[in-house]
Structures are given as structure tokens and as C-alpha cells.
Amino acid sequence: MKLATLKNATRDGKLVVVSRDLSRYVVVDAIANTLQQALDNWSEVAPQLEEISNELNEGEREDAAIFEAELCESPLPRAYQWADGSAYVNHVELVRKARGAEIPESFWTDPLMYQGGSDDFIGPRDDIQLPSDDWGVDFEAEVAIITDDVPMAIDAKDAGKHIKLLMLVNDVSLRGLIPGELAKGFGFFQSKPASAFSPVAVTPDELGDHWRDNKVHLPLLSEYNHNAFGKPQAGEDMTFDFAQLIAHAAKTRNLGAGAIIGSGTVSNKQGTEYGTSIVEGGVGYSCIAEVRMIETIRDGKPTTEFMRFGDHIKIDMQDESGNSIFGSIDQTVVKVAN
Amino acid sequence: MKLATLKNATRDGKLVVVSRDLSRYVVVDAIANTLQQALDNWSEVAPQLEEISNELNEGEREDAAIFEAELCESPLPRAYQWADGSAYVNHVELVRKARGAEIPESFWTDPLMYQGGSDDFIGPRDDIQLPSDDWGVDFEAEVAIITDDVPMAIDAKDAGKHIKLLMLVNDVSLRGLIPGELAKGFGFFQSKPASAFSPVAVTPDELGDHWRDNKVHLPLLSEYNHNAFGKPQAGEDMTFDFAQLIAHAAKTRNLGAGAIIGSGTVSNKQGTEYGTSIVEGGVGYSCIAEVRMIETIRDGKPTTEFMRFGDHIKIDMQDESGNSIFGSIDQTVVKVAN
């Protein structure tokens, strides 16, 4: 089943069921007005939405309309919980290596995770609006899951069943603000502005065999200014799977229905020390920071610039036939109007 | 105007208007079902709620029922944004001093703030449920505000007008988990479990002259295991006022209606180096950690223990006549059932 949230006059948009090929949608307001409402009552609502999804995919819904990703909010335009892991420890090691630091051994056994802000997500085709492009604007291509209610202190082996939906994420980061914030000791705040999610959220079964071991086994595609930039395998080098990330997040708290948990920047080692770019025959990267780290390690200093107003990022994931699974995130950095 | 959220069968509870003396309430579902709904449409909804509030305070509402804080959720049982400042820099200085570290000069000009989790707040009279009491369980008594929509990059001088409601907070902290999490560099996550808020949220005008300069000028009262523990003035030693905290939070993001921003642990220097306890004639403290810091600085090691299952904390704020303004937070630490 594939779900999306269309923009309307409300803050939470309108829930729709989208066909597998992303061509059509059906309004489901008789079942749930919003995705949060559906998640609040998932065990009752999901089977009803599945039924509509089946009818839609079999061409049996005469009320289906043309689906356009441009009309979408993020599936949850605002959420109660957005916790972003950093499960690809290669990414973390690379960032540290560039400044000559080793990562603590515990990073391989204890997940890194930060508490994100969730009151104002960006639509998947909306501009990334910021007051300045002097802050080292970067994208981070990630996978995320949405849970139902997760009880406190859940064991990782029981956590996988709480994964109800999958999405892609652009976890926008302001690299220039990160060192100062982390030095203060309270983690990210200003350095992690609003994130964007893929137009469509899908149930794990939509991925077939590509969803296993609580990981997505497909390449995550990033195109920067319309050039291929990254295609790492999301299922490789993911040190902590989504069930482990849920268990980490829920160690001392319940997670409410609709909690979003991110994978962190997808990053592959590719049998080399830190991976290679697509131009060099590798699988590339899911953020600019990694390229700059490579440049720093190799050349002593970074040469690739961070994003400026007008720069564009596209994030997508495709099936074997090249069809987009979630619809693509497709965004340009612009100066905020106010 | 005073507002509360009564428990019902839903996740967001039922919005009610409460009388100034906290004795009676009126259901307002013809205007808004939930506090979030009211905040989403505040400019339209607030005047209608004010009208009911006036009638209720003048004894003109025959539909008024007896108000009991025990039946309350936190005013927002779940929220889209919970950003907690640390505006009483004395508190931060004390924590650092105890481990022999100076605070950076920038801490006096650049607010500390962490991104809290907001999907599962505790009711003001509900137990603090945790899997273990070996993690250094502590309360933190604070004041918080709720905003309407705040645009990105707002100037502090324009931010005060976005403060719509005030509450008290118990920002539960797990001190034993903090050093490990902060060492990882991503800030608090497991060390900040669910927070609780006062039964009632009030508009700033309810505080009269005690609300000025975007600060609350009244003592914040903490009672630990039924003994007076703290009564610091929330208006003193608050290095950053709530307008400055809003501007800090909104530097790179919009804040959605219903965003909660906390003051951080209220802490007074009291003309001494780090304050003194109530027993010693001072205004005491708003968390156990501060007492332990004092003990460490004075005696070389802390002697006061953190909270254990069965320990109790009450947080309140009263007017000149000793009447509770927000209703009290009143909680016991217990082992989580599951």
C-alpha cells in the first residue's frame, strides 16, 4: 500500500491512497482524513486502506484521479516525533577522520541518534527556504520508517513489528553551524532545519524481498544539480537496523503512533577505505560533507562547495525496472521570503 | 484565561476553560475539541474562549462542573515541538563547576537549547514511569510558553507577541545517562524521557504585573518528598527571556502553532556564590543535581541521592494570596508496568 498527503487548506493535508505505479490516487476521507489519524488507529484503518489500494491497483476505482507529486506535503506534514539515527557508521568515521579523530569503539554497538524538530516539515517538491546560504547548506539522503505505538523499553527483537510505513528523507543540515552547536554540548538545533520526506510512504510489503532484516536493500539515488551523485546500497554497511534504532529510541520513553525514525545518511565503504565517487566508478555519496571529507583526507582541503541558493537536490529510490517507489524528493535551496 | 485538557478516550483529550480559582470548568467543544486545534486557529478561537472564561469567572455559567487536576492530561498531551532552553546560566555554571570546568564566555550571549521529544507527555498527576531507577532520576522545575506560528529568522524584539500561553514543566532527567550521551556529541535523547506540564495553561495577562520583560516574576516552588526544596524567583537570573529563546529556536526554522519552549531549570544565585538551600535560609533549588553540585564543591562529593521508585515531586507557582496559578505538578517515580 502506498499513501500520500495532498496539500489542502489545512495544516495536516488530506490522506490519499496512491497506486503502485504512482499514477493515480483515491481520496479516503470516509476512513481517515489525515495520515496521523490513520496511524492513531492503524490496526482498524490499515485493512480498510489496503482494500482501496487493491481495488486501485486492479483498475477498479472509478473515483481515481491523476497523482502529481508536486501537490504533496510530506506524508506527515508535521509529526510528534522525529528521531534520526546515524546507522551508517562509515559516514560518522569519515567525518571524524577528516578532522583527525578516531571514533569511539562504542559507536559500533551503541547507536548515535539525535532528536529532530518535527513541527514544520517541507513538502517533497517545495523549496528549502533559508535566511542565508552562508551556513554550509547540505542535503542528507536517508531512509525513514513510521511506527505505531511502541512501548518503553522494547527489545530490538520485538521492535520490527512496529514498522508500519517507509519513506525517504532529505535531512537538511547546516554544516557551518554544527561545530559550534556540538561544542555547546546540547546537540543539534539550529544546524538541523526542517527536513523533507518523499511524496509517498509505503508499507514494507511494497518492497518485496528488498525489505528484509529490518533494512531496505536497494540503492538510494541522489542527483545534485542534475548529475548523479550517489547510489549507495541502503542495505549495506547499515550497522544498526531499524528495529535496533526503534529499541534505542524507546529505551526510556514510549513512542507515540506516527513516530518517524531515520537511518542517518546512507553511506557505503564499497571495499575501499571510504568509498569513491560515481565519476570514479564508485557508488558515490548521500551528502556533500562526505565528498569534502574525502577531499580533505586526500588533498588536505575540501574543494566541493556546499549548496547555495539555486542549487538543486533530487533523492529517489527505484525498483528493478527503474520505477520510482516513493516518488522523488526534488528541491531547490532559496532565500526565505520574510 | 486558563485552559486545561481533560482525559477522555482520545490521544489529545478534551479542551476545557478553567476558572481563575481552578475550582470549575466548562467544556468548549463547540469552539475547539483540543488545545492544539485552538492553537491552530488561535486568533479566531481565543476571543471566543475568553468570553466563556469571563462568564465562568463571573459565575454566569450554569454548565460549569467541578475541576479536578487529577483528571488532566498535560495541556498538550502530545505536541509538535518541545524546545527546552537553559536560560538560567547559573545552573549551567554550577554543573560545570562541580566537574572543574569553566563555562565558555559565549554561554552568556548565545542560549543553550536542546530539542526535546514531544510525542508522549506525562499527565501532571500521573506517575513518572521508568524501567529503572538506577539512572539518576531527577526532576527539573521550569516555566514554559506556548507559541502560535512563528516565522523563521524572527527578531527577539518581535518574538514576545507570539507567546500565547504559559505553563510549568517537570523536565524529567536521567543524570546517569547524560555524560555518555553528551560524549557522543548528538545531545540528549535517552537521558530526557517524557516531561510533564502543569494541569492548567494560562494566558500571560493572568499573571498581571508578574509577567513583564517576557519573564515570569514569581517564585517557582518545588517540594521533594513533601519538604520545601526550592522557591527561586523565575524572573531573576534568567539570562535569556522567552522572546530571546523563541528567536534562538526560530533562527533557521518556522515554529508551528503549539510550539512549547522551556526556560530550563530555574536557578538563583541569591547573592551567594551558588545559592543556598531552604533549610539554610536560601531559596533552594529546582533539581537534585544542583544540590549535589553544591555538595561536590563544598564537601568533595555529593551526598543527596537522586530519585528512587516511590519518591515524590510537587511543582507549583502561587499568587500573593497563596493560590495556585497553574495547579501543581504532583508525581511519583514508579517502575513501568510492561
How many strands in all of chain A? 20
Low-pLDDT parts of chain A are: none
Query: On the 0-100 scale, what is the average pLDDT of chain A?
Result: 95
End-to-end Cα distance of chain A = 39 Å
Order of helices and strands of chain A: EEEHHEEHEEEEHEEHEEEEEEHEHEE
The most extensive interface between chains reads: A-B, 56 and 56 residues
Strand order of the largest sheet of chain A: 6-5-18-9-10-12
How many whole angstroms does the radius of gyration of chain A measure? 19 Å
Shape of chain A: globular
Strand content of chain A: 15-25%
Q: Structural class per helix/strand content of chain A?
A: alpha+beta
Fraction in helix of chain A:
10-25%
Largest sheet of chain A: 6 strands, mixed
| Number of separate helices of chain A | 7
Oligomer: homodimer
Protein traits:
homodimer; 338 residues; alpha+beta; 6-stranded mixed sheet; 5-stranded antiparallel sheet; 20 strands; 23% strand; Fumarylacetoacetate hydrolase family protein (chains A, B); hydrolase activity (chains A, B); Fumarylacetoacetase-like_C (chains A, B); hydrolase (chains A, B)
Q: What does this molecule look like?
A:
Two copies of one chain form a homodimer. With 338 residues, chain A is of the alpha+beta class. Chain A is built from seven helices and 20 strands. In chain A, a hairpin with a 5-residue loop joins strand 2 and strand 3 (24-27). In chain A, helix 3 packs across helix 7 (288-299). The longest helix of chain A has 16 residues, at 42-57.
